[in-house]
Amino acid sequence: MNRPYIIMHMVTSVNSKITGEFLNTDAGKVATDEYYRINREYKADAYACGRITMEESFTKGYRPRLSAYKDLPAIREDFVAKKHGYYAVAIDPHGVLGWKNDIIKDEDPGYDNAHVIEVVTNQVKDEYLAFLRKKNISYIICGEEEIDAKLMAKKLYSLFGIKKLLLEGGGKTNTLFYNADLIDEISLVLCPKVSDGIDLFVNAKFNPKKFALKQIKTYNMQVMHSIHLRKTRIK
Ligand SMILES: NC(=O)c1ccc[n+]([C@@H]2O[C@H](COP(=O)([O-])OP(=O)(O)OC[C@H]3O[C@@H](n4cnc5c(N)ncnc54)[C@H](OP(=O)(O)O)[C@@H]3O)[C@@H](O)[C@H]2O)c1
Asked: Residue 186 and residue 205: Cα distance in Å, rounded?
């Protein structure tokens, strides 16, 4: 396989919401703790999130002042700033995320010390590419107007050696991978609450026969964790 093995790992409510008040309940906190623990247990080479999730979790809405980079050379080809062994893959089609550093700093060892790889389309501005180079942040250009997810997966494998990738939301990004047939395993931490919020998938084209249950566990009698494998991967 010339792409990473991809595990979609998420916490959801009973009605498949991935955001909402349920996350602040006692059961939601148990679910979130289990989610982070399982993330670490997978020992992946990288985690991938959409622009909105990256913004919420790491860049906190900061946008670079691009005029400062307009006189620097922008090279419209993939940029491997470093081989680091652990990566944070940001799906950011227009190139807007304001990273302060090429390495993520986070209290949780499952996210800490990951080198950022920006996944952009050709819609990205020259100044943003120059900004990334200046910050020593890697980037790959995948698609003209929309992210070509298959191309992205190939490049993550061939340029960075990523063999196991955790896909960690949000719903739009999960759908991008699902519709491109790139999800090999689904790991769901289910919190027994009904909620409003954002959906696990947004307009996915489902094939109900694609996945089969591998295991179910319960934690503290409050949350359930299930693993579902792509059928072609079951021996
Ligand atoms: N419960 C959990 O386990 C969990 C895990 C992770 C995240 N979350 C939550 O998920 C929420 C965000 O979810 P979300 O679905 O709104 O956003 P998202 O998936 O985090 O990011 C969506 C963005 O990614 C970009 N994108 C790349 N390719 C895309 C495509 N083919 N289709 C659509 N967008 C594409 C777009 O950026 P542009 O708009 O710049 O074009 C889009 O707005 C956050 O609030 C976060 O807390 C929950």
From this structure: 16
Position of tokens 């900061």?
A: 62
pLDDT in tens, 44-97: 999 999 999 999 999 999 999 999 999 988 789 999 999 999 999 999 999 999
Computed from CA positions of residues 42, 45, 50, 52, in that sequence, does the dihedral angle turn out positive or negative?
positive
User: Which domains does the chain show, CATH number per domain?
Assistant: 1-44+165-235 (3.40.430.10), 46-162 (3.40.430.10)
The finding on whether 204 has its CB within 6 A of some atom of ligand 1 is no
Evaluate: CB of 200 within 6 angstroms of ligand 1. Answer: no
Among residues of the chain, what percentage have pLDDT more than 70? 99
Q: Kindly tell me if the per-residue pLDDT of 231 is higher than 90.
A: no
| Ligand 1 nearest atom to the CA of residue 173, by list position | 19
Q: Is any atom of ligand 1 closer than 6 Å to the C-beta of 170?
A: yes
